[in-house]
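Figure-free illustration: sequence to structure, shown twice.
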Amino acid sequence: MNPGDYEFIGQLLKQRSGLVLAPGKDYLLESRLMPIVRERGLNSLDELVAELRRPTSESLQTEVTEAMTTNESFFFRDNTPFDLFREDMLPALLEARATRRRLRIWCAACSTGQEPYSLSIILKEMADKLVGWRIEIVATDLSSEVLEKAKAGMYSQFEVQRGMPIQLLVKYFTQVGDLWNIDAGIRAMVDYRKLNLLEGFSQLGTFDIIFCRNVLIYFDQPTKATVLGGVASVMAPDGYLLLGAAETVLGITDAFKPVPNKRGLYAPTTQVSETLRDSAFGSAIPKLQAV
């Protein structure tokens, strides 16, 4: 691919999704975009770029953007965020919301659904502690294709083997041929919506917990700051933000601060939960039963 075409695709991706295409990623373009080339009856990436440059290429631009921003996911990925959800955030918020008895959780860039379904399973496992509670999980992604897969809740043997404990697999999945279908009750706990993080999301309402993991790593610094500012605007003052292991708010925004000794966990600077602060320094906190 010539430098001009490479730059054009990079600008397209940056404008439509925030993704920064680093130099030398020709192999990534080929692996992600050649299926579109073939589906469109084209002969090369050069021809695809020529089509993208046409004024009437809106649908193709969307297809290319979604193909380039589709990322892998797996159940209970990295474990620590889910331990923090179960053992720290939930106890703190269940205490803080004891009167209202309502929690809202957002999984941003949810991909094919493994993250929100992992949260749903944790909540299902502790159902006896949540009687009378209304807990909503909203999961969003830029890609229509991955959202459809997430809604279907059908996963291959390889996908369920990546992180799903066998006892939970047997309990919450049904084998259908070579695939595993997640329980309808677990699917019903998640509200999937299409959303571009660059286009604003105030319409989603306010959340108590936000998972925005392994998303910021694809953005440049100004875009990271914009997205984190938007996240802060829809977070409860005593809510919590989970980022990926390679991500941070430090040097990007003052809207959040790290929760001490809790890797990847951040709280709004306006108010850090006293419960979690005490827990971070060794004070006792009620623990929920681990999955």
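We now fold a second protein in the same way, so the two outputs can be compared directly.
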Amino acid sequence: MVLTREEVTQVISIMNGVPQLVVKLLYGSGLRVMEAARLRVKDVDFSMRQVTVRSGKGNKDRVTTFAASLIPLLENHLKKVKVMHDQDLAAGHGTVYLPHALARKYPNAAREWGWQYIFPARNVSVDPRGGLVRRHHVEPSVINKAIKTAASRTGIAKHISAHTFRHSFATHLLQRGTDIRTIQALLGHSDVSTTMIYTHILHQGGEGVPSPLDDLDV
């Protein structure tokens, strides 16, 4: 399922707060919703306008584009997250889950600002992996619920999910003439044949053939 640019605008304009910001990343960078939820502060490079996705599908890292229009919005959001992080530190918490053996290799990294989640959960909780009180990332279900609510308000007769914005990202890049191999890299597909699926969207109508009814003046 793919949305038109106008439909993307409709859905996003109805949303607000963190869910809207996440959806702008899904569409603007071609992210999966879990990839967006797991983003760390250090993963977004404002000067290079790129996002690094770590341990994506297939446990692979990749670099994708970052919309310039998101810079002031995300910078303002991160100011609020930084205040929250400082408050957690003052309360004796402030650590974040680190992947693999990083927590053992860099014992102080879990408290560092760069490793914090860009979209943290509203409340701290006990991590069952070690019993520490810490702030996890936002639950994807929160984003999905917000998308569902916004989609229903638009009246668009399409099944719209978080993944729809990733599909739309790829399709709209193709429509702009972006090379298929470039889109493959941005999406993190192992095989270009997976990316080629989006090319069928470019042919409006069945097999790209216009209906003969349009030739009649009736």
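Summary for the second example: Residues 5-201 form a domain with the hpI Integrase; Chain A fold (CATH 1.10.443.10).
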